[in-house]
Each structure stands twice: as structure tokens, then as C-alpha cells.
Design goal:
With 318 residues, the protein is mainly α. It is 78% helix and 1% strand. Strand 1 and strand 2 form a beta hairpin. The protein is flat. The termini are far apart.
Length: 318
């Protein structure tokens, strides 16, 4: 009797394992099916625009729904430049906050500051957009942008980058908003990976006479660089695909300007602004092609980050 009960229990366990294995396989397969469906929809929808404009779609700045002349270079430029500004400002600030929270901050302040940083990630992007349009952009128009124009106005090269009137809204403002939005993601991840450094390793470095800065630079950052890169790439993915906040503050102008203070547009902002009003197959297809381009850019960025992580793991022997 006991042997029969044991056999019955083993069969139930085996059945449970089989059901669990099948359920997880279906869940993983669902992701691939959804991703394939998105890619197929984008490719099919972009065929009219690609067949009409060809490679010129990627190099043309014109965007005229009346004459049905469309080109993607202006939104591509805006997407890349705003993401670059966001990373240029957001990554050092995020790393600084993470280092302060893990190595320098008094214990009583770590939880309140850490919670405040994480709450920034929970604010809807449209709130960032409204705040950016009505508060942040006017502030920049009266303070930082005139300062930059005055300082770099006579510097060859930089006078073009920071030239023109201070509009308030524009590519530079959009990049700053993105920097604020990616900050909690990068900070939270880097803080968590910094906490994984074994205390004995840091204590050994302090015992050898290293300063706090030397321990951070030569022990903490090398030990956690894989996680840091992962956090930065997550923030970059967020910056490339952000829509609502950027739509409010970038100015939505389909042109490329040498000045980052001038209005511009991004791929996601163009799609959000115009898709509901798009009429005609070619207009709609051009917007879908922009979505396909954004998908490819994001895929390339994630692939490069994955290759970098694999090389670091191989180099470290893990």
C-alpha cells in the first residue's frame, strides 16, 4: 500500500513538472510570436513608402504631407541627439548618486534618498512633458540658454552648436528632460550592483591604504562594470523610445539645425503627433517606416550592449 502511495505521489510530481515545463515554454514562445508579429506588421506596413522613396527616405529632410514627400533623416537625427544628450548628462549624475548612496551617504539618509530617486521612475511621462513645457522650458529660456549663447557665441564651432535665439523648447531641453527620466533607472541598477561588492574586498583595499575614491575607481567600478553597462543600456533604450514628454518640449519641427537650442523632432514624437491625422496610404506607410527604423535602432543598440557584456564576461572569466 505504501509503495502504491509513493508511486502515485511520484507520478503527480512528474505530471506537475511536465505541466510547469510546458507552461514556461509557452510563455517564452509567446514573446517570440509577439515580437515576430510586430516585425512583420512594421515591414508590411512600410512597403509602400520604401518602394516609393527607396534609400532616399533615410537621407531626405523633407516632410510634406500635402505633396506626399517624406524623409526620415530629421526625426532620426533628433532621436539620436536627444538620446546622446540624455546619456551625456544622465550617466555621470546617476553614477554619482549611486556612489554617494552606497559609499558616502549617512545610513539615516540612504533610504529616503533612494526612495525619492525610485519615485521619479513612477511619474508618468506626460507629467514630465507638462512640467517641461510650462516650467522647465521657460526657466531655461530665461537662464541657461542665454548664458550658453553668451559664453559660446564667440567660440568657433561651439557658436553653431549653441547658436540662435533661446526658444526654451528644443532639442537641448528634450535631452535634459530625458536625462531626468533615465536617471532613476540607471541609479537604481548601479546602486544595486555596487551593493554586490563583497565588503571584504573593499576593506582589503582600505587596509592597503587606498582612499575612498581609489577604492571606488579601482575596486567597485571594475567589479561591477558589467552591471553598470547593463543599467546604462537600459536607460538608453528608455531615451530612444520616449514619446509623450519629448512631444511636449522638442518643438516638433521637421528640420535639422546645427544648434541644439533649435526645435526639432524625434521618431516617436512624429508618430505620436501625426498618426491619428495621417490620410492616404503613403503618409501612413511613412510613419510606420519611422517605427521600423526606431525598432532597428533599438535592436542595434541592445545587440551592441549584449556583445559588450559578453566580451566583459569572457575577459573576466565568469
Amino acid at each position: 500500500m505504501a509503495a502504491q502511495d509513493r508511486g502515485s505521489a511520484l507520478r503527480r510530481f512528474a505530471l506537475g513538472d511536465s505541466i510547469f515545463r510546458a507552461a514556461t515554454f509557452v510563455a517564452a514562445l509567446t514573446v517570440l510570436l509577439l515580437l515576430s508579429g510586430v516585425i512583420i506588421s512594421l515591414v508590411v506596413g512600410s512597403i509602400p513608402a520604401i518602394s516609393t522613396f527607396g534609400f532616399d527616405f533615410l537621407t531626405t529632410q523633407s516632410w510634406n504631407p500635402v505633396t506626399e514627400k517624406f524623409g526620415a533623416i530629421a526625426p532620426i537625427y533628433g532621436t539620436l541627439v536627444t538620446a546622446f544628450i540624455a546619456m551625456l548628462i544622465g550617466v555621470p549624475v546617476s553614477l554619482g548618486i549611486a556612489i554617494f548612496l552606497t559609499e558616502l551617504c549617512p545610513h539615516a539618509l540612504r533610504r529616503p534618498i533612494g526612495t525619492a530617486i525610485e519615485l521619479l521612475a513612477g511619474i508618468p511621462s506626460i507629467i514630465y512633458g507638462i512640467w517641461g513645457l510650462f516650467v522647465f522650458a521657460p526657466f531655461l529660456q530665461k537662464t541657461l540658454q542665454p548664458f550658453l549663447i553668451d559664453v559660446f557665441g564667440n567660440v568657433p564651432g561651439l557658436n553653431m552648436v549653441f547658436g540662435g535665439p533661446p526658444y526654451g523648447i528644443g532639442v537641448f531641453t528634450a535631452g535634459l528632460i530625458l536625462a531626468i527620466m533615465v536617471l532613476p533607472f540607471i541609479t537604481a541598477i548601479t546602486r544595486d550592483v555596487f551593493l554586490t561588492v563583497p565588503p571584504v574586498v573593499k576593506e582589503a583595499a582600505f587596509g592597503l591604504g587606498c582612499t575612498t575614491w581609489e577604492v571606488i575607481r579601482k575596486v567597485v567600478i571594475p567589479y561591477t562594470r558589467t552591471g553598470i553597462i547593463g543599467g546604462v543600456m537600459l536607460g538608453l533604450g528608455r531615451a530612444l523610445g520616449e514619446t509623450m514628454a519629448i512631444t511636449f518640449v522638442i518643438g516638433n519641427a521637421h528640420r535639422i539645425s546645427a544648434s541644439i537650442l533649435a526645435p526639432g523632432t524625434t521618431i516617436s514624437a512624429t508618430i505620436a503627433n501625426e498618426f491619428n491625422e495621417a490620410t492616404g496610404t503613403l503618409y501612413t506607410s511613412s510613419l510606420i517606416t519611422l517605427g521600423l527604423i526606431l525598432f532597428v535602432i533599438t535592436f542595434v543598440v541592445l545587440a551592441i550592449s549584449r556583445i559588450m557584456l559578453m566580451r566583459l564576461e569572457k575577459k573576466s572569466g565568469t
